[in-house]
Specification:
Structural class: alpha/beta
Strand content: 5-15%
Order of helices and strands: HEEHEEHEEEEHHHEE
Helix content: 25-40%
Organism: Catellatospora coxensis
Number of helices: 6
Number of strands: 10
Largest sheet: 6 strands, mixed
CATH topology of one domain: Collagenase (Catalytic Domain)
Keywords: Membrane, Transmembrane, Transmembrane helix
CATH architecture of one domain: 3-Layer(aba) Sandwich
Protein name: DUF3152 domain-containing protein
Shape: extended
InterPro entries: DUF3152
Length: 304
């Protein structure tokens, strides 16, 4: 009997991996997908958080600014949560403007001691060219201190106006207090003191026995308190404010101090030159308080 070599049986070609149950497979797939979804969600959250931080930083534009001092402001009006049930009543129409003052009411002294209270402050330089002429302002001692304040303020306002004497650019003007060097003084004097001062210089300020006009003496511009308070008929009848007359009389008398002489009305209906004696009447002209009109020196015919 011959010996035969034992051979291994041939491999099976029909082998397949064992089939798992569909229930087990489905559970594992579900868990894997859930883990994948969680990882994706975590990644998205991280990205969104980073983007948010970058956006906030861009909006802030860097470090916070240093705190600033609070500034007062007008409170903002708040809106009503609901519209009003009925329309609001109409606002009352503004009342008519008060009538201009043509004469001051109330009593004031007609005479005084002839001594003076001076404005204490120093004013600014009025004008842009020319040598400076310095002046003081004073009121008689029995004239109220409030009247001196008003007088001083109006002198500054009038002489500093672009239509006043500084428009000629020949000189500048400055009010100075007592103790400073000066060229002239502007006085607000009671009627009787005005009469005495002007009379000493050869001028009669009376009309119908009462001191009426103002005057100028060398270095002294004297404004009559009677006219300062009561104006003149032509200014009142023409509905020109007392403020305008006061500016006229300041410019007129200071004009004399600056070397100007009297002028007449240049024609019916035309503005009166400031050097016209408007206190005695306008003579057909219209009231005018200024030496410069329309940027030009305005004059009338000379009066002897």
């Amino acid at each position: 009997m011959s010996m035969r070599t034992a051979l291994a049986p041939p491999p099976r070609t029909d082998w397949e991996p064992p089939v798992r149950s569909s229930r087990v497979e489905s559970g594992r797939l579900a868990r894997a997908r859930a883990r994948q979804r969680r990882r994706r969600a975590t990644a998205v959250c991280v990205l969104l958080g980073a983007a948010l931080l970058v956006g906030v930083d861009l909006l802030r534009g860097g470090p916070d600014p240093a705190p600033t001092r609070p500034v007062a402001s007008t409170p903002m009006a708040t809106e009503s949560p609901e519209p009003a049930a009925s329309p609001s009543p109409a606002a009352p129409s503004p009342s008519a403007e008060p009538e201009p003052v043509y004469q001051m009411a109330g009593e004031f002294p007609s005479s005084g001691p002839g001594t003076w209270t001076y404005a204490k402050s120093q004013g600014g330089v009025l004008g842009t060219a020319g040598s400076i002429k310095r002046f003081r302002v004073a009121a008689e001692k029995n004239v109220a201190e409030e009247e001196l304040d008003v007088f001083t303020s109006l002198v500054d306002e009038t002489l500093g106006d672009a239509r006043s004497w500084i428009a000629g650019r020949q000189y500048r003007l400055q009010r100075v207090p007592t103790g400073a060097s000066y060229q002239f003084t502007i006085y607000l004097a009671t009627g009787e003191t005005t009469r005495k001062l002007c009379g000493a210089g050869g001028m009669d300020t009376r009309m119908n026995g009462v001191s009426y006009t103002s005057c100028r003496l060398p270095g002294r511009v004297v404004i009559n308190l009677n006219r300062w308070r009561m104006s003149v008929p032509d200014y009142v009848n023409g509905k020109i404010d007392l403020h305008d007359y006061r500016q006229y009389v300041i410019n007129h008398e200071v004009g004399h101090e600056l070397g100007r002489f009297h002028e007449g009305c240049p024609g019916n209906g035309k503005p009166a030159p400031v050097m016209q004696q408007q206190t005695y009447g306008l003579k057909g002209c219209t009231a005018n308080a200024w030496p410069y009109v329309g940027g030009k020196r305005y004059t009338g015919p000379p009066v002897a």
